[in-house]
Amino acid sequence: MKYFLSELSGFFSYRKLKNYVVILVLSVLIFVIYLAFHGNYMERKDFIKNVPRESHQQQPIDDEFIKQEFEEPDNESLPPWRPEHKGGVNMHVFEDWCATSILQLRKNVLYPLYPHVRTTIKTLAIYPKSTNYGVRIFGYIHPNVSGEYIFAISSDKNSEFWLSSNESTKGLRLQAYVGKTGMEWAGPGEYGKFASQISKPVKLLKHKQYFFEVLLQHNEGVDHVEVAWRLNQRNSIFTVITSEYLSLYVNETSVLAGDTDNIPQTVASHEMHPDLIYIQRDPVVDMAREDLRDYIFQIPLMNDSYLKNIFPQCNYKPINVFDGAQMQRFHGIYYVHYSRVYPNDHTRQAHSAVDEMCFYNQDKVFKEGGGFVQYLKTVDGGEKSDLNWERSINVNPTDFNLNQPTVVIHTCKRVGNAILSEEDVMPVVDAVMNKLQLTEHTSELVLKRIVNVEKRVDGDAGGRYLLELELEDAKGQNMLLSRYFHVTTNKEGSPELPEPISFCSPEDFSWNPAARVHVILPVKKQGRWVIQFIRQMEKVYRVTKDENFNVIIIDYSSDDVDIHKALKKANLPSFQYRRLEGTFLKTTAVQTAIELIEDENSILFTTDLHLNFPVSIIHMVRKHCVQGKMIFAPAVMRLDCGISAHDPTGFWEIDGYGLIGIYKSDMDRIGGMNTKDFKDKWGGEDWELLDRILENRLEVERLNLRNFLHHHHSKRGMWNN
């Protein structure tokens, strides 16, 4: 008994009692934590189990289009979230985009990394009273009650609402949308017009954040978009999602146009593949189809020494040059002629209904003969005006391209290049191949395909061809013959000239494949477009691996992007950068760039912003510039508003000559840029330069260049505005 009492008193001693209490408290805490985690786990399990399958399996609009372009990164790096981000969401605006569908917005070359406006809004409802723009709204939603939520969206023109299953951008699913085609719209708060406007129930947890995106494309009308939600309960109504449930994805109060690291790229919003224009399986526009000319630089070029003494030589005869003493100012454009091409390069906007009949009306036979009816020959001789379902007709093949003079290009701005006939091309090709096969070291060469032919004609001077033929030798190796020939047609039955044509290689008229090309760009501000230009040059370098071109940017104190830093970061063969102060003057900027070029045997190519360059641009400039003889002035297509390079539709800029390739020695000889007359203004300097080019008896090679495109834009924020 004494032993028991002793043990009992020891058990209830203060020191041991204190230890037991601590153990008991810790046990209770562990049990409470277990219950909390178990409840949260069961709630998440119930969430996954009860989310409707349609919500997870719902395919985004244009799913095939999106999937082929975007793969979610394995490792996602989200910007740090801070409590002060609460109360608003990010909004990016893409201006000057005349489209109505979200698919068209995604094709915008600036989307989604280079918006015109970066701002924030406090509710998921906007009414900016503007036209022709796209919007991307993104951030986090924070529900304050766990439960099943139903979302709804309404907008004028097309819109989409995407929601992730957590804070990650990787789990986005399309929940609700207004239309696909650009024709659909709904009134403010009209959530029931289309079945697609209201989502399936989605389970959300309180104190969690969910990444979302709202996309809108608008052209005209009462512009609005609003996203509402409600609990999946009886008598609950949709209310617009407001600031207490929202937070920013990232704070953008002090970013520049080129700062894109924290702009999320998602399955809903990501850049188009830079080379998609060349990989579309069935493009709507023929010019977007693959053409051998687009990658002609990949065929190894035949060395001139290999062709020495094969072709007869002749004196160079200038084609289409000014032969007067002095030209009336700004009249040079009337002395420029276009070349014809073969095969069809599909630069004609045949798919466009705009000004379509202009092309046909230039054909004298078509216009004077009564239009298309004259080509329908009735077999039974009945009157064409009589209704007769059983009338038999005969139709002969007609190629309206071959009936068009090159001047049609100046009248109809959507017709593209004039086309050469096969009858024009094959006699010249046959004559060249005969010469090759009669020469011992080239006798085994065979013609694999005709890649490109261009022809210029000038009355008594005859015609000049640029022949580009892919040949194959006895070992199966391919090579490119790219050479200029002067061609005359012989009189039929002439005993002195039994062949149908005579051709020769003009002396000192050949292009230099090793000439260095300097791409010159004068800029002021326009940061997002400067970045696009640099990326275009990177694409040219990446695809061609051409080490022999140089980018020169003359910058008038741009403060919206660090151009020098962007150039140093870019993957380019070489670049030069010069910063100027004061009012933007194009002539001064270009002349500054010219003076940076030391090699007079190199080519300078003056360019502009807002352009889509074909990857063959450096090759095209080289082969159309002949030192002391010819400069190159490619025409660019101005895209219609809301149109991208993937489906190019627009008109050819036939009167613009600001984009030219010319040898440095020739530019120096004609006096460079006119910085005297244009020292305090700009506009017209390209026509004045063209006048002096022609006065110095330089030829001007002019072609509508495939996929050389000018993106539509307004003049807001440009240069000195």
Automatic annotation (TrEMBL):
GO terms for molecular function: N-acetyl-beta-glucosaminyl-derivative 4-beta-N-acetylgalactosaminyltransferase activity. SUPFAM superfamilies: Anthrax protective antigen, Nucleotide-diphospho-sugar transferases. The keyword Cell inner membrane does not apply. Its EC number is 2.4.1.244. It holds the Pfam family CHGN. PANTHER family: BETA-1,4-N-ACETYLGALACTOSAMINYLTRANSFERASE 3 (PTHR12369:SF15), CHONDROITIN SYNTHASE (PTHR12369). This is Beta-1,4-N-acetylgalactosaminyltransferase.
